[in-house]
Amino acid sequence: GLGQLGVGLAQLLRRQYGKDNVILSDIKKPQPQVANSPFVYADVLDYKHLREVIVNNGITWLVHYSALLSAVGEANVALARKINITLHNVFDLSLENCLRLFVPSTIGAFGPSSPRDPAPDLCIQRPRTIYGVSKVHGELMGEYLHHKYGLDFRCLRYPGVISVNTTPGGGTTYAVQIFHDALSTGQHECYLRPDTRLPMMHISDCHRATVEFMQTSECQLSLRTYNIAAMSFTPEEVAQEIRKHLPHLKVTYKTDSVRQTIDSWPVRFDDTNARRDWGWEPTFGLEKLVTDMLQSVRIKRTNEGLPVS
Ligand SMILES: NC(=O)C1=CN([C@@H]2O[C@H](COP(=O)(O)OP(=O)(O)OC[C@H]3O[C@@H](n4cnc5c(N)ncnc54)[C@H](O)[C@@H]3O)[C@@H](O)[C@H]2O)C=CC1
Ligand SMILES: CC(=O)[C@H](N)C(=O)O
């Protein structure tokens, strides 16, 4: 829970359900701002200890965020396979303890043979990264256990998520780093080609979608795995939008062959089913995202004593 997405989701859930009713867990030490709220050490590979945490704390909902993301996973396939597929622990414990279970998937769960513009919820999925393969495995296992044993499994396929916190794990993180570079050196070296179009989402839309989806009554769900969309852009387009605020921004392109394999990810998501079944609607488009990110990154860098131009 201490990665890019977990802390913010816990904050949103705590506002609705009370601070003590949401427990964050991870294998690393919590940041100071998290340290005053419930936190437990939990390694998802340790079945017995996970069971102890669930039983001792009367857990009812499990949000399973731990994973190795695309680029980090590709750099360490054995570890990605271990962490991302040991999701079985979480499935078994959810069934054993009648938990409801949310596990995110990703645009990376699609591959070169999938329809890309747009990618529907149900289509061919033959991803070519260990990250994508493990996420498809999670989607299918969760749906299987739902149909066979009634597990309340829920899964959203997130686009690349944009927030002030940069995480090194993903193929889409250029779209976070570019804001920091624009506000510091004014120069960004992008590891993707300028025309690589990908679905993206502001973190607040991602958190809100997750909570709204978790709160939807089961009878409204026609699927267990839904695409959610907000916007799609290329590195060149986001740079152009940033230049409306910071005209001096220079972007150079040095393609990284591993990350550029995300060429096979969808260009756009079709999220018609999420909109119809549980009322999903994004609030951030590219223009609003860029304005918000420049403001938030400026505040963060200033507070941390980092250079801001
Ligand atoms: N950030 C994004 O753009 C997207 C994220 N997602 C999914 O959302 C979820 C959360 O993503 P992020 O927060 O961005 O990931 P992240 O890489 O920032 O955080 C993952 C967390 O998992 C923890 N972890 C690693 N091994 C562990 C273990 N053995 N036991 C317990 N915790 C362990 C790490 O310490 C880290 O804090 C992931 O499942 C990811 O696939 C899906 C699509 C987009
Ligand atoms: C889209 C994702 O799942 C993530 N941001 C990544 O690039 O790996």
What this model shows, in words?
With 309 residues, the protein is an alpha/beta fold. It has one domain (6-303): 3-Layer(aba) Sandwich (Rossmann fold), CATH 3.40.50.720. Helix content is 40%, strand content 14%. The chain contains eleven helices and twelve strands. It has helices at residues 6-17, 47-56, 70-75, 77-85, 87-96, 130-149, 174-183, 203-215, 235-243, 272-278, 286-303, and strands at residues 24-26, 39-41, 61-63, 100-102, 105-106, 153-158, 160-162, 187-190, 198-202, 225-227, 231-233, 250-253. Strands 3, 4, 5, 6 and 10 form a five-stranded parallel beta sheet that branches. Helix 6 (130-149) links the parallel strand 5 (105-106) and strand 6 (153-158). Helix 1 crosses helix 8 (203-215), helix 5 (87-96) runs parallel beside helix 6 (130-149) and helix 7 (174-183) packs parallel to helix 9 (235-243). The longest helix has 20 residues, at 130-149. It is globular and about 55 Å long. The relative contact order is 0.14. 1,4-dihydronicotinamide adenine dinucleotide binds at residues 2-6, 26-28, 43-45, 65-67, 69, 83, 104, 106, 158, 160-161, 167, 169-170, 172.
Rg: 19 Å
Q: How many β strands by DSSP? A: 12
For the largest beta-sheet, the strand count, sense and barrel status come to: 5 strands, parallel
Bound molecules: 1,4-dihydronicotinamide adenine dinucleotide, 2-amino-3-ketobutyric acid
Q: What is the H/E string?
A: HEEHEHHHEEHEEHEEHEEHEHH
In total, how many domains does the architecture comprise? Answer: 1
